[in-house]
């Protein structure tokens, strides 16, 4: 245990949280993907930050770029408990042309390069690079220890995926000892794993480095005009060819109940976002948000308990197989298999089925909504029916390939104006 504490105290987490997430369509019109709401009260970025804190890492930096205000405000409100006098830090690092006036962050590696002086000030031996836009629970200490014991230049977090699905990822070919022998970006014929040819190792975008090694590598990469200054495209393949890159299996450090599958989701599309949220309403969801041993920390808005009112025929406030957050008022509405974020108010004779409603949504009387995602602050007008006629829905809203309807206030305003 003593050595575990020494390792985490000598490490920092650098969270890359600048990507727009354009596949989430209008959900990222006003916020970056890591700031998108998830699970009733959290944001996507909370998972990487909580994993770091639960792993014992108390020095964290977050690099932001695209529409960062919502993310920055969330971190200021929900992650302001770090104390410098205890040698704890959470620094927010917006792209600010610190090295040049002609570019912002040019790639994932450049986001670290532009903040070398800040990382130096942390006085750490190890740096863990994290993507801020995935849903998972992982003990980074296990990966860090494996990195140190192997003497690797870089250790890459890898998912075990069916080989038939691996073409969507950057794929690692490894030898029997776990050393990466090649890195292939979205290959048509992904390599199988040693001893399990039907599975492949896909990169999670999580990397552990010795800071001195990475600092030198970043400095050289910054001077390379042919580089895209990206970890996955440039730095990791270079280390695979010229150094020692090791693969770390997510199965070995995933935090889960005994016997449960390893849970990792990229909620980067409307369909994936909707499904991952709806999955939480299952009897025993694969992602355990109730685990007190590995909590997901976030900004907890002050809100009263949820309230359910009316008990009349066709006007009964009920929620079945659903998650309902604080501040919600379910007034004469039937809710099934849905997830309601903070301060959602629904009115009499309405019905929600497989709906994800983000904070401060209002649903007026007689509305019927099915298989939908409702953006923050939307007011659903009286009598609106969604999810029963896809062609009609598509006239006004965004209907995904999987049949999920995304509703924003701008869409409703255009519908009301007949535009």
TrEMBL record:
Its name, as the record gives it, is Glucose-1-phosphate adenylyltransferase
Which region is the signal sequence? Answer: none
What EC number(s) does this enzyme carry? Answer: 2.7.7.27
Concerning PANTHER family, the annotation shows: GLUCOSE-1-PHOSPHATE ADENYLYLTRANSFERASE, GLUCOSE-1-PHOSPHATE ADENYLYLTRANSFERASE-RELATED
Q: Which UniProt keywords apply?
A: ATP-binding, Carbohydrate metabolism, Glycogen biosynthesis, Glycogen metabolism, Nucleotide-binding, Nucleotidyltransferase, Transferase
- Which taxonomic lineage is given here? Bacteria, Pseudomonadati, Pseudomonadota, Alphaproteobacteria, Rhodobacterales
Q: How does it assemble?
A: Homotetramer.
Ranges for domain Nucleotidyl transferase come to 13-281
Matching PROSITE patterns, A to Z? ADP_GLC_PYROPHOSPH_2
The record's family statement is: Belongs to the bacterial/plant glucose-1-phosphate adenylyltransferase family.
Question: What pathway, per the record?
Answer: Glycan biosynthesis; glycogen biosynthesis
């Amino acid at each position: 245990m003593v050595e575990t504490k020494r390792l985490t105290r000598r490490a920092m987490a650098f969270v890359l949280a600048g990507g727009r997430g354009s596949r989430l369509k209008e959900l990222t019109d006003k916020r970056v993907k890591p700031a998108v709401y998830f699970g009733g009260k959290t944001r996507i970025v909370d998972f990487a930050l909580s994993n770091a804190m639960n792993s014992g890492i108390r020095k964290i930096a977050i690099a932001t770029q695209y529409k960062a205000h919502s993310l920055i405000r969330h971190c200021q409100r929900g992650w302001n408990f770090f104390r410098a006098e205890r040698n704890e830090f959470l620094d927010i690092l917006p792209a600010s042309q610190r090295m040049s006036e002609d570019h912002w962050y040019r790639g994932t590696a450049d986001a670290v390069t532009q903040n070398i002086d800040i990382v130096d000030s942390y006085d750490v031996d190890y740096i863990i690079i994290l993507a801020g836009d995935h849903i998972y629970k992982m003990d980074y200490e296990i990966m860090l220890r494996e990195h140190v014991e192997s003497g690797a230049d870089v250790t890459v977090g890898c998912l075990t995926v069916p080989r038939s699905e691996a073409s969507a990822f950057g794929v690692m070919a490894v030898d029997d000892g776990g050393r990466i022998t090649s890195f292939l970006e979205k290959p048509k014929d992904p390599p199988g794993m040693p001893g399990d040819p039907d599975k492949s190792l896909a990169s999670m975008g999580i990397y552990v480095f010795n800071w001195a090694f990475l600092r030198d590598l970043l400095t050289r990469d910054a001077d390379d005009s042919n580089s895209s200054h990206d970890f996955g495209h440039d730095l990791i393949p270079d280390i695979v060819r010229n150094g020692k890159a090791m693969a770390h299996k997510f199965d070995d450090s995933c935090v889960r109940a005994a016997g449960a599958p390893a849970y990792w989701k990229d909620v980067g599309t409307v369909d994936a976002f909707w499904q991952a949220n709806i999955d939480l309403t299952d009897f025993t969801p694969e992602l355990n948000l109730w685990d007190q041993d590995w909590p997901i920390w976030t900004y907890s808005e002050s809100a009263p308990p949820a309230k359910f009112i009316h008990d009349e025929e066709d006007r009964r406030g009920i929620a079945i197989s659903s998650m309902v957050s604080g501040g919600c008022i379910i007034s004469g509405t039937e809710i099934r298999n849905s997830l309601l974020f903070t301060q959602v108010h629904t009115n009499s004779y309405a019905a929600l089925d497989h709906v994800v409603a983000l904070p401060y949504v209002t649903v007026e009387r007689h509305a019927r909504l099915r298989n939908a995602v409702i953006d923050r602050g939307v007011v659903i007008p009286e009598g609106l029916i969604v999810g029963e006629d896809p062609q009609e829905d598509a006239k006004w809203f965004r209907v995904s390939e999987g049949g999920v309807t995304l509703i924003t206030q701008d869409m409703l305003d255009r519908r009301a104006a007949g535009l």
